[in-house]
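User: Please fill in residues for this 249-position structure.
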């Protein structure tokens, strides 16, 4: 679901570049390709601080052994002292990429990882003259606006009502007036609360909470399931009160 996905068995040569937890969406697509059993051509390069930090390392190695269409390359930021490391060491560079996937300019590239990693990849591909129309990137920064380190004033969403509603928070006992256009998340911050949040577009689901009473208008981007909505849950970042409401927060 979403734009950052592909069918590896559709005949397009692919290159996955990931670092750290950015491997997660790559694994979903890789597992699908391997499970379908159809021919595919996928070069998968994953970087981590050390071999011990490589998520899915064993699973990826097994998949590469059993599927000839999967070419796997692992990069460790440091040379481990505790084991014999047969993979690459250091930071991803253009010479390293050319060695791993000499035909990378012919491949559609999917990249996910920390911002510095992706910035480096974009610069490297630009230097190589890669057609960036074939480049797909997934950016997800949970560190920007999580609990305890939010700075700045709450942002008001586009106005959806001309009426002010009371927002009550069951656990904290706080009550705040939600001005026209304010999201539930903004109201929580107005009350001095710092609920977990990240994308603020209804995509990640980090700000999920339960609506105890009242009504809201929620325009989410896939960060909440239908059954969760049926259970009374909402995403605070993209919900606007339509009446006085009470939240589980």
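Assistant: Residues filled in for all 249 positions:
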């Amino acid at each position: 679901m979403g734009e950052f996905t592909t069918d590896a068995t559709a005949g397009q040569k692919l290159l996955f570049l990931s670092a750290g937890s950015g491997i997660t969406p790559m694994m979903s697509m890789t597992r699908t390709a391997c499970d379908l059993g159809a021919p595919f051509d996928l070069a998968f390069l994953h970087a981590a601080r050390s071999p011990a930090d490589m998520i899915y390392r064993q699973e990826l190695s097994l998949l590469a052994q059993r599927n000839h269409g999967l070419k796997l390359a692992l990069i460790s930021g440091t040379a481990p002292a505790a084991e014999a490391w047969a993979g690459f060491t250091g930071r991803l560079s253009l010479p390293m990429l050319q060695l791993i996937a000499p035909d990378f300019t012919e491949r559609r590239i999917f990249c996910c990882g920390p911002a510095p990693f992706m910035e480096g990849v974009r610069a490297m591909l630009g230097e190589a003259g890669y057609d960036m129309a074939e480049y797909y990137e997934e950016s997800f920064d949970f560190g920007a606006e999580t609990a305890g380190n939010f700075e700045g004033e709450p942002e008001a969403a586009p106005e959806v009502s001309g009426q002010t509603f009371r927002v009550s928070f069951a656990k904290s006992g706080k009550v705040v007036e939600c001005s026209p256009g304010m999201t539930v998340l903004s109201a929580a911050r107005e009350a001095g609360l710092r609920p977990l949040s990240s994308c603020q577009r209804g995509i990640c689901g980090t700000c999920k909470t339960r609506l105890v009473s009242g009504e809201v208008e929620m325009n989410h981007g896939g960060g909440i399931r239908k059954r969760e909505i049926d259970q009374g849950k909402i995403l605070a970042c993209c919900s606007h009160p339509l009446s006085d409401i009470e939240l589980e927060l």
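For context: Confidence is low (pLDDT under 50) at residues 142-161.
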